[in-house]
Amino acid sequence: MDTHKKLTIGLFGFGVVGEGLYKVLLQTPSLKATIKKVCIKDAGKKREAPASLFTTDKWELLNDPEINVIVEVINETDAALEIVTTALKNGKDVVSASKKMLAENLELLLHLQKETGRSLLYEAAACASIPVIRNLEEYYDNDLLHSLRGIVNGSTNFILTKMFEENLGFKEALLLAQQLGFAESDPKLDVEGIDAVNKMSLLLMHAYGILKHPSQIAFTGIQQINASDAAVAKEKRFDIKLVAQAKKLLNGKVAGFVMPQFVRQDGHLSFVKNEYNGVVLESSFADKQFFYGKGAGSFPTASAVLSDLSALRYQYQYEYKKRFHHQAAELSNDFYVRAYISFDDWSYIPRDKFMAIEEWHAEAERKYLVGIVHFSELRENSWWKENNTSLILYPEAIIEDLEVRKIKKLSLELAGLI
Ligand code: HSE
């Protein structure tokens, strides 16, 4: 007996993802999911679908009792929130790809899911085609997840690849990312790490039960990275990536941030090029696992929406297990990081704030140091991303207190030479 629910979809948005989903659904009749109406903003635009499918009236979808699923893949955060909350309140299940809206309103959306009993699924909102959210929620349903390190923004990874491996200029690389449909309509969201931290906020919830507005998570983007940083990276046999990292500390709290990071050229994340995303999870017994796939673009994103739709046929819901069934972890700033910092002038660098300075290159064309600094210094101050200063974390960036004491002892001599 087929107990699967028939899905009648109201789709909001017919851009890169919406159109992708429309085409993907045409090729997957076995899903028994049909789009009844598509709500768009601009009725005048030419679209490759029957005109009768489209409307500019959101209520035609939200108030249609036959429509039991709303798929929301639009660009505007406020409008997306209104659509999603109204749909849930109207008894519909929802699939959304609006990472910014989801991350900024997760608390409210958790309440609404509980209150209405409806599902809100958003696999496409983090790492597009990689099924990372559902895996964190279901497979890593225990306390054994040590760490997560991921490249979660396709555009910045595309730009870094094009700039440092194919010698394209920043502007050219960004333009290409925009033309290919990877970049946000405001590309600052990609470049400055905002998109990545929005995704990180969702990942922290499903990995550790941490509920944090993106503004409460430390982040920066790739806007400060320049060619001399790439040259130093090469010398050290590293690549530079924008990495979202979370790690369980010895005290049970979690370190979490989004920052540029050196990754070893023979490591998993170095393998991730262009618009691909990659996530390395480390847990007690499985050791390392590497998820890899396209993190942006029409069909890769649509494929995650499709998988959510498929899950809705058997009433799947996120239980937010780590938050509600386990002891939710806490985000901490109480740890140290090893960082490479390049800058124009020494006067911009508060040397007394470093626990140790391990390398000091005053003679280089662009000056740089490698040092250990307490993370709260980076949280509370912004010298490290002002005045053309750039910071890149080391591969095993997170250092806990005991290790630092050892390093400090060793480095006192070195500091004396400076
Ligand atoms: N702008 C986003 C990215 C799209 O480049 O990753 C996918 O979320």
State the gist of this model.
With 418 residues, this protein is an alpha/beta fold. It contains 15 helices and 16 strands. It has three domains: 7-127, NAD(P)-binding Rossmann-like Domain (Rossmann fold, 3-Layer(aba) Sandwich); 132-295, 2-Layer Sandwich (Dihydrodipicolinate Reductase, domain 2), CATH 3.30.360.10; 336-414, Alpha-Beta Plaits, CATH 3.30.70.
Model description:
It is a single chain. The chain is α/β, with parallel strands linked by helices and 418 residues long. 35% of the residues lie in helices and 25% in strands. The chain folds into 3 domains: 7-127, 3-Layer(aba) Sandwich (Rossmann fold); 132-295, Dihydrodipicolinate Reductase, domain 2 (2-Layer Sandwich), CATH 3.30.360; 336-414, Alpha-Beta Plaits (2-Layer Sandwich), CATH 3.30.70. Helix 6 (132-139) packs parallel to helix 10 (194-208) and helix 7 (154-165) packs across helix 8 (170-179). The radius of gyration is 23 Å and the shape is globular. The chain starts with 6 loop residues before the first strand and ends with a helix. The model has no long low-confidence stretch (mean pLDDT 94). L-homoserine binds next to helix 7. L-homoserine is lined by residues 128, 153-155, 182-184, 190, 195, 295-296.
Distance between the termini: 77 Å
Number of domains: 3
Specify the CATH homologous superfamily of the largest domain.
Dihydrodipicolinate Reductase, domain 2
Could you name the CATH topology of the largest domain?
Dihydrodipicolinate Reductase, domain 2
The CATH C-level name of the largest domain is Alpha Beta
Number of helices: 15
Spatial order of the strands in the main sheet? 3-2-1-4-5-6
Sheet with the most strands, sense and barrel status: 6 strands, parallel
